[in-house]
């Protein structure tokens, strides 16, 4: 739950929190109709509700009375919530202890996708008790099977925590909410490539804080699984010699082999030209 400040607010008491227009405030509670409680970074306090625009309301207010609720499923694949789940990011399904959720499919080994009150999302398997499981043959769709055979497998370089919400309309970007924990797969300088649950994408490094316990860097491991693979350029790259392949952002490159002894450089072909380039300048198609 969070909101965006519409005006500056200067605290006049110790229990209040100051903010500037445009700042993102994590909502933690409602004190009364006209005041909310929230956090900005490590600061927490109360403020007038009419000073912000609520983007995602408090869980208790979304589910109070459940005006759009639908009957709980009594047959078919379903599970019962063992605990409340507030959600950790966009695409998560929020629920309360005792809710009966319609099961749609398994997502990896530790997550499920389900439907509750006409909303669909993912949630941890450990938060529910399965009443009737999804048939094995319907648990994975063709798109996910294609993703499972992607050319590159990555080790996690380190983990980071989102300081702010990041909401982008770009398909290659990874959207998240403040407080989400993201696994970083590639460090591209000012941008990172990461994974949040089952979603992958790039995002600005300035929106996250690298976990102090996770700064050991591991090289990505690449595995060739197909004869031909295409990639899309994330940035311009100007080769400095005749062995390097020059390209522009959004160019589509045919990938070759990795450079011997350098797992962060790749051979590729573009418009009849053959050369090497850094792997962190591309994303797979």
Automatic annotation (TrEMBL):
Domain SH3, chain residue ranges per copy: 1-57, 74-133, 155-213, 226-285
Listed GO biological process terms: protein transport to vacuole involved in ubiquitin-dependent protein catabolic process via the multivesicular body sorting pathway
Keyword terms, alphabetized: SH3 domain
Segment forming the signal sequence: none
Classification via InterPro entries: SH3-like_dom_sf, SH3_domain, STAM
Record's protein name: SH3 domain-containing protein
UniProt organism field: Lottia gigantea (Giant owl limpet)
UniProt-listed PROSITE patterns: SH3
Keyword Transmembrane: no
Any one Gene Ontology cellular component term annotated for this protein: ESCRT-0 complex
Organism domain of life: Eukaryota
Pfam families: SH3_1, SH3_9
């Amino acid at each position: 739950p969070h909101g965006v400040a519409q005006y500056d607010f200067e605290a006049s008491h110790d229990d209040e929190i100051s903010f500037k227009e445009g700042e993102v405030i994590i909502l933690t509670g409602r004190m009364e109709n006209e005041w909310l409680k929230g956090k900005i970074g490590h600061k927490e306090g109360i403020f007038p509700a009419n000073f912000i625009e609520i983007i995602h309301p408090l869980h208790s207010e979304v589910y109070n009375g459940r005006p759009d609720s639908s009957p709980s499923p009594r047959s078919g694949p379903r599970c019962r919530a063992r605990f409340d789940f507030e959600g950790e990011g966009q695409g998560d399904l929020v629920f309360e202890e005792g809710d009966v959720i319609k099961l749609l499919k398994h997502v990896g080994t530790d997550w499920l996708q389900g439907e509750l009150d006409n909303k669909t999302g993912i949630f941890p398997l450990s938060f529910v008790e399965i009443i009737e499981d999804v048939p094995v043959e319907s648990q994975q769709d063709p798109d996910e099977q294609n993703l499972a055979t992607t050319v590159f497998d990555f080790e996690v370089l380190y983990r980071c925590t989102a300081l702010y919400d990041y909401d982008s309309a770009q398909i290659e970007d990874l959207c998240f909410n403040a407080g989400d924990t993201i696994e970083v797969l590639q460090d591209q300088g000012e941008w990172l490539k990461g994974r949040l649950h089952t979603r992958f994408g790039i995002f600005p490094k300035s929106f996250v804080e690298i976990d102090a316990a996770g700064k050991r860097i591991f090289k990505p491991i690449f595995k060739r699984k197909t004869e031909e693979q295409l990639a899309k350029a994330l940035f311009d790259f100007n080769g400095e010699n005749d062995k390097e392949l020059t390209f522009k952002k959004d160019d589509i490159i045919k990938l070759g082999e990795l450079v011997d002894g350098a797992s962060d450089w790749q051979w590729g072909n573009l418009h009849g030209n053959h050369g090497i380039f850094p792997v962190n300048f591309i994303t797979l198609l």
